[in-house]
């Protein structure tokens, strides 16, 4: 029996390097706007299923989509608001999270040096 698995290629670090921080946030907002349920103002299962092909995610199963919603749904309402979506995109990008941690550590080190 063949098993199917979803393949996700992480383009977020490339986008971050090319667009910078503000540009990346703008693109994440554009992605949110493509997936959002226009009446509810959040990404629901139905809006994600309907619009996911626009982002090249047409191969994801219903279970994959539900899992994605659960992973990012911090307030437990069954949908993703814009902040939850952006946080989820960062969490799904291990390379970008490592880079963010490095930059955070560097900033802390610089602040620490000012106090010594």
Automatic annotation (TrEMBL):
Q: Name one Pfam family in it.
A: EF-hand_8
| Highest taxon listed in the record's lineage | Eukaryota
The EF-hand domain sits at 60-95
Molecular function, one GO term:
calcium ion binding
* Segment forming the signal sequence: none
Coiled coil segments of this chain: none
Keyword ATP-binding assigned to the entry: answer is no
Protein name per UniProt: CALCIUM-BINDING PROTEIN KRP1
